[in-house]
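Task 17 of the worksheet. Students: predict the tertiary structure of the chain below and write it out as structure tokens. Keep your answer in the requested format; marks are given for formatting as well as content.
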Amino acid sequence: MNSIVVHYKELALKGKNRPWFVQVLVRNLRRALHGLDIASVRSAMGRVEIELGPGASWDDVRDRIGHVFGIANFSYAGRAPHEFAALAGAILESLGDRTVPSFRVSARRADKRFPFTSPEIERQVGGLIKLHRQWPVNLGDPAMTIHIEMLPEDAFYYFGKEPGAGGLPTGTGGRVACLLSGGIDSPVAAYRMMRRGCAVLLIHFHSYPILSRASQEKVREITTLLTKYQQHSRLALVAFGELQQQVVLGVPAALRVVIYRRLMVRIAERLARAWKARALVTGEVIGQVASQTLENMTVIAEAATMAILRPLVGMDKDEITAQAERLGTLPISNIPDQDCCQLFTPRHPATRARLEQVLRAEAALPVAEMVTRAVEAAVVEEYRFPVLEYAAGRNAAER
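Model answer:
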């Protein structure tokens, strides 16, 4: 056995656009498997075949494929001729000395012109395996299912399925920019957009040197983890502490948080447009904190001229935490840190800010100058998987 058969589900519904989606999936698989002994990755009639070289490790390949979006499931497989005796012989050889209390054969034909129906293939091949192994056949609840897929030239066979990451291939959904904190919510929001095929640009606001670098180190770890899914990430680190100090000096305390968020939205939008992103993404959830009431979220969104997507908006904290745990970001997010959200936060922030109040307060600030200064000073880092690296020290203007 030296092949992996990759099945997709949602891509099959794309009609005339399906070849392009499959082409992107093949490209992403090649990138994800870079550095491993892979002979080829190619589309094969409604599925993708990965041919392994002699030095490929199934465990390494399985881990990498498991992070590629667009895959329903995949299987470690062998190839054999159509002829039933040869096919059964190859299956028996691959089974080795394995024993099971019951089995069944499940066959599919990629090409319906094949002269035998799927049930006939199951009976013929299953009968030969039963003859050699004396295993009972159980069609309802077998201990092992031997899968056979008949292609025009030969057949695949395999003994189990690994779950894929689902969703759509990265790069098919356009670019978005996600405001990434070191908390639990925003990494999950970024992941959910990646799973829908979006390439996600990550933007982190920090208050160094007023506060420590802890939040920056956390988002670097989170970015490294998320890059396993989208293979290339760009992280912009935006110094925000000085802008917060200006807001404290010129804005009523109750409105500070809303104005902080409006400044973040403006800065993120400038960075997003420079990177040709079409929308901003946040981890906001209605009612979770004071700034995330429907009234405040509406006032904050008014500062943007592009769409703001909130993939978590209707979830509760338990649901988000459970997904962060499955994703692997939860232990990182739980590391104590000092981020800009904790700096200069008033004791009683406004929960139902009115736009006219906010606009009057912002009139006391040189908003355009503040945004430009923050954008020009933003430091951009590049991350890649499987070759993980980031190039520090280059600001957004240089890119």
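Marker's comment: The two ends are 46 Å apart (CA to CA). Residues 175-398 form a domain with the Rossmann fold fold (CATH 3.40.50.620).
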